[in-house]
Every structure is written in structure tokens, then in C-alpha cells.
Write a structure and sequence with these properties.
The complex is a heterodimer.
Chain A lengths: L22 E5 L1 H11 L9 H7 L9 H16 L4 E8 L8 E15 L2 E12 L4 E12 L30 E2 L1
Antiparallel strand pairs in A: 1-3, 2-5, 3-4, 4-5
Chain B lengths: L10 H5 L8 E2 L6 H10 L10 H5 L12 H4 L18 H9 L12 E11 L9 E15 L2 E14 L4 E12 L1
Antiparallel strand pairs in B: 1-3, 2-5, 3-4, 4-5
Classes of the chains: A alpha+beta, B alpha+beta.
Chain lengths: 178, 179
Amino acid sequence: MAEDERQALTYEDVKIDADIPSWSFDYTLPIMVRWCAAVETWRRDHYDYEYAVRELGLPNAVGSGYWTQACFYKVLYQWVGDEGWVWKVSHQLRAHLLPHHVFTFRGKVTAKSVKDGLGYVDLDIGLSQEDGTVLSPGHATVVVPLRGGKPVPYPFPRASMTPGRSSAQNMGATERRV
Amino acid sequence: MADASGSLITGELRAAIGMEWPPITSCDPVQSSEVRRFTQATMDQSRIYWDEAYARARKYGGLTAPGSFPITFPRRRAPGTPDPVIAGADVSEADAAIGRSGPRIPWPPQLKVFHAYSDLEVYQHARPGEYITMRRRIVDVYERPGRRGLLLFVVTENVFTNQHGDVLCAERYVDVGHE
């Protein structure tokens, strides 16, 4: 279905525990290199096999965290559509992104609420590979209109970033502060 | 190796909390060709990024760029600056290239450093023609035990604006270092 023919997602359409459309593909070195070229990153571990293996002791070149973030944004944006807004995307890089795996980006609705006439939807998101290993877990919050309600404002109002630690980094063990 | 107290947090690193880098403004304005390359790299065919008539009819009023596009854009190397490829940049040197100028994070030299976490908040999309400025500061340093020893985390907060001062997005970015 063409984008402009697609029914806009509304708050009422969203069900808790529902999965959003996932996205799977073969993750390859050309995909990794294309990202590096597109954003002009020169971290050699992202594209230089010999450097990654010999100098850093990695099993291969490793994918970029910013690529993962951009892909999460894409998957979420394509779900909410132009009438919604992808507000927050948090992700943790738990394992190296290595080529020659089938990657899948997923999202599952965990909570929803209405505030000031807008629908706020929280999701668990994740990037996993074909053996079930979760490479990058995370959280997201998107904003969608209520059915027949006001549009989601654009630009989306800015609040200060939630104080304290990253929501993604809180998915871990005890830490020692400075 | 951790110091005598067992900590990886050096005095230099502790003193770096609150450190700000000079703002970095993209050397070029956002161009539709850059957006095209970015969206091809994420296999994103959304029409707001390439179909002018479609985008103009939406809330954006014209072509736009993905929400995380501003994060990498100001870091592109400006003409006349040192070439990290010719210099054979390693990971830490690439980090300096991200800053393009100003201080470096004083990581203990024995650590290997990787991107660990990121929190992104998006308020509006960048548009072709906009210059993007990144403001970056260290907001936290901490450590945790890992499976093979201590892990050291450095948290930076990065805010991205266009030339009108509009905040496009902000992120809390966490690097981890381990021996």
C-alpha cells in the first residue's frame, strides 16, 4: 500500500503487548561499509577487517551503534506514519554487530496513556540475530493522535532530557559512582 | 590496569565531568543527496525524504531528513582539516575526529572503547539547506564490574540545533571502555 493511502495510526489502534511490524534482512559487510560512507565515519573497526581482528582482537569488523539507532527510528517512524511522532529512542549495544547474520528489528507495545489530548505509547524495542541473540535491546516512546483528535504538534515540544542516567544504561548491574 | 584503589576513574577523568567541547557546525548545509545516502544506508524509502510534493503536503512543508540524521552530520570532516584515513586513525583517534577540535576524553590508554548506550529525543527533522551545530559535554563518569573486569563508562550529552537555534534532537551518549 502506498504511504499516502495508508490509514494513519491512532491511539485507539494501539494494543498493549502487540508487536509492531518487524524488519529482517541479511546483514553484510557492504551494508556496514555503505553506512560508513554515508555518514563519513572513519572508525576503522566499522569497516577494516584486518584492523578489527589483528589490532582489536575482534572476530570481524563490527557495525555502528548509530546505524542501529537510525534503523530503530526508521522502523518506528514507518509504524506511526507521518501523523505520529517518534519522540524517544534508547538502545543499548549489548553485543557486537557482526556481518553474515540475519538481523531483525522488532518492537512491542508495553504501555499507552493519554496526556493533553495526545496518545503516548511506550515500546520495548530490539535488534536480534537469527539464533535469538539480542544484540541491542532498548525502549522507545512514540506519540500518536487520538481518533478524531488534535494533530501531534510539529515541532514536537522540547522538555529537558530526563535527568539522571540513560534509560538504556539502567538495564544492568550495580555501578560505582565517581 | 586499575589504579591502587582498584578504580579505572583517574583524577583527570573525574576532573573532565562538566567539560564542554567548542560547538561544531557542519561544514556544509544539509543536502538532499546526503539525506539520500543516509536513507539508502538504512534502507528507508519513506517519501518525506525524497518526494518533494508528498513532503510539502505533510506537516514538514517540504523535504526533510530522518530524526537521527543531525547526530552524524556535523561530524563530517571539513575541507582543509587533517585526514584521519591517511593518518591511519585508530578507535581513539577517530573519537578525536568526532570532536574535530577541542579536548579529548582522557580515557586510560589501556582501555578499548566502544559505544554502549544512547538515548535519543527528537523534536523536529532537519531540512535541506540547514546548517547543524552540535554542542557536547561530559555529564557523568562511572564504572561497573563486568565479566572480565571493570568497565568504565563516560556519558556525554549532545544537543543539535539548526542555524535558527531550533533544537532538532538531543542525545545522551555512553561509551564504555574495558581492558
